[in-house]
Design a protein that fits this description.
Number of strands: 6
Largest sheet: 2 strands, antiparallel
Radius of gyration: 30 Å
Structural class: alpha+beta
Helix content: 40-55%
Number of helices: 3
Oligomer: single chain
Strand order of the largest sheet: 1-2
Mean pLDDT: 80
Low-confidence stretches: none
Length: about 130
């Protein structure tokens, strides 16, 4: 006598998983489209000042619909008094990270004191942990 196994329940389960996998990207995109404006509100609430920088921010959806971000609007520029135009993304990066520049030129810095690596030689009395230049 042959034993039989009823696999109809397993087939239904696999079909429902396949349907879920087909629907998920669209549902995720819809959720992210609703989330984007809410994120923009929260970001704008954290930006102080006159409102100029808030106006530069926009919602960006990933090309595959897998993420949403708030970032400076593309193709948006701000001109200085002298007429030099800067992409607002450069300006917001400077606001977030600060203006970076090199140190004073022509100066020599003293070498830092560093710890010697442990060499396992206990005859030095410091067990290899002394300072060196």
């Amino acid at each position: 006598m042959m034993a039989t196994v009823d696999t109809r329940g397993l087939d239904r389960l696999l079909e429902s998983w396949d349907a879920l996998l087909r629907e998920f990207p669209g549902k995720k995109r819809g959720f992210l489209e609703q989330l984007g404006p809410k994120l923009l509100e929260r970001v704008n609430a954290g930006i102080g000042g006159s409102g100029k920088v808030r106006g530069w921010q926009g919602v960006h959806m990933g090309s595959g619909g897998g993420y949403v971000a708030v970032r400076p609007k593309a193709e948006t520029y701000q001109a200085t008094r002298s007429g030099t135009r800067y992409a607002v993304g450069y300006i917001t990066n400077a606001i977030e990270g600060g203006h970076r520049h090199g140190g004073p030129r022509g100066t020599i810095t003293a070498p830092a004191l560093t710890r010697r690596p442990h060499r396992g030689n206990s005859s030095t009395g410091t067990h290899g942990r002394g300072l060196r230049r």
